[in-house]
Structures
1.
Amino acid sequence: LDGIEMSVFVLTDGEKYVILPNAKDYKRIGENDTGLNTGGMGCISPVPFADNIFLSKVENQIIKPTINGLNKDSIKYRGFIFFGLIKVNNNPFVIEYNIRMGDPETEVVMPRLKSDLLQLFKASINKTLDQIDVEFEKKNVATIILASGGYPLSYEKGKKITGLNNINKSLVFHAGTKETNFIETNGGRVLACTGFGENINEALKNSYKTANKISWKNKYFRNDIGKDLI
Ligand code: GLY
């Protein structure tokens, strides 16, 4: 299949479902999608090429048959379904299913959720998802992953991270960090810098502003997240 990938998420109670904001992840380590695969080097939400016509195809051709299929096979499932999709000639195809959220998709999807996540989880357990009004933030959201130089191959840990106290109007999610006398790197993908904007450009600009304020020796990030879509 030759096309462009994106991620769609639902929370289901087994019969009903809520469609969460969609996202596009950038998986390769190098700019212009080159080099080794990683867990994800950046993400944006919403996905500009996922218009209403395409999203209704996703719902009718993929989401509904998936939930019906689970029931037909007597699989009682309540929770997230992550549809890894590819758009080929304006039609969606499933590349993979996961029964979890994505990373770094979560760092752009959850900041767009205005409703209480705990209430959603309760409704999923109690099979009352149809009784809940779920609200989403209209804003665009982007996240840039700051990684240890060398990742996804070998990399050094224990580098002192500075600039974390200098962040405003953005969110910084910790992944591969550890607190000693200071905050230090402790993994390959270290931090996710999430920024907001009225459009994708502004969201990316704010994420990069935050990404550039944070430092450690051999910090690495991609400078081209979202650029293919602008
Ligand atoms: N970002 C892809 C995943 O979480 O599987």
Note: The chain has a mean pLDDT of 97.
2.
Amino acid sequence: MSDLRVRFAPSPTGYLHIGGARTALFNYLLAKGQSGKFVLRIEDTDVARSTQESVDAILDAMEWLGLSCDEGPIYQSDRFDLYRQKVQQLLDEGKAYRCYCSAEELDAKRELAKKEGRKPKYDGTCRHRTDSPDAPSVVRFKLPEGREETTFIDRIKGSICFRHEELDDLIIQRTDGTPTYNFVVVIDDAEMGINLVIRGDDHINNTPRQILLYEALGYSVPEFAHVPMILGADKKRLSKRHGATSVMVYQEMGYLPEAMVNYLVRLGWSFGDEEIFSIDDLVEKFSLDNVGRSAGVFNPEKLLWLNSHYIKTGDPQRLSDLLKPFLEKNGIIYKNGPDLIEVVQGLQERSSTLVEMALGAEFYFADQLTYDEKAKKKFLKPEQKDLFLLLLEKLDQCPSFTEESLEKVFGEVMEITELKFGKVAQPLRVALTGGAPSPGIYDVLRVLGRDIALKRISSALEVLGS
Ligand code: GLU
């Protein structure tokens, strides 16, 4: 067991975004691969924006992806006492101070700075105040004096240096007494023993402030690894314009979690030119060394391609379990009738998603087929009457619906009618499926079974030419 401790720290203000899921995955893989610990922390200090619904959505998505944590979920909202103590500690040590500047004053200063072409930042008005007016206040962290820059070595991006002139006295506690993100993230990562922080590179600018807070609070500073953003095809930050960004929407669209995991990991990480990785492969192979420095581009076609791959190669029993909710959603009653696992086996090759598979499965379970109009016109014509009667007879006599005996039936029918294979198979396929795209005709017959097959041919006979 290593002493690696990593964490995923989502703010529950929406669903689990593709980018967040990738961060969670990288953390998970590294912890698993090095027998470290993966901690899940819910960053819900922003009480107004955090909801239980969103916490549940995040937990559901992580469960779906199989990203189980070793510790957590730990809620920041349960830890306000600790944060208050730490604010007091910094105040007592003279490393933080109360600031009474009103929002209006600050706005006015900001406007002035903008007008004068300066970067707006807090001017330190309350830094040296000795009185304590009876007015609302925030608590600010004093940017340490006598230091010009903070540098850290990012495990992905290399050395990063921030000039302190870019920074100002950060608010660590709001007027309502709640602590702010940059402050609590430091306390929690330190108190939870996190020694490697892996997160999106939108947090790089926060890192120098956080390092200064670690130092002020007497904690050791963890390592950082900032993962590049995910962009859309137009190289703009991934958003809804590029397709769904919520992980769970992909579940609803019939994607398999293993396809999603495989897709997410390759958005920023590579291993030679390999594309297909099981989760076990990833646990073994994943390392930060092969995480690229540039942004990953979201490619829905590749995700779909991976999904087809995992459907094609998936265990039919498991796929049939995953398919059930999709069938139910379409009102398909699959409990009586053809064996669902066999149906799935026939559709694996031709379905890219479970939604597609559910559509493909529909004809197997239909009580009454609805014929595709074009197919009906073309293949269910009066002249097919003899063919269907002959098929009824031969299939009825066929000892069992194995591929071999069905081939024999077809041979006989073709000989008697002097029709080519397609001329027998195509009308029969329409009779059996209604004209839906379907697996091979023997497969359809085998899976439907004799009773349903004969019933459907009889029904087709009734509609011939109508
Ligand atoms: N809660 C932050 C977010 O959701 C992440 C903080 C971090 O990873 O340091 O963006």
Note: The mean pLDDT is 95.
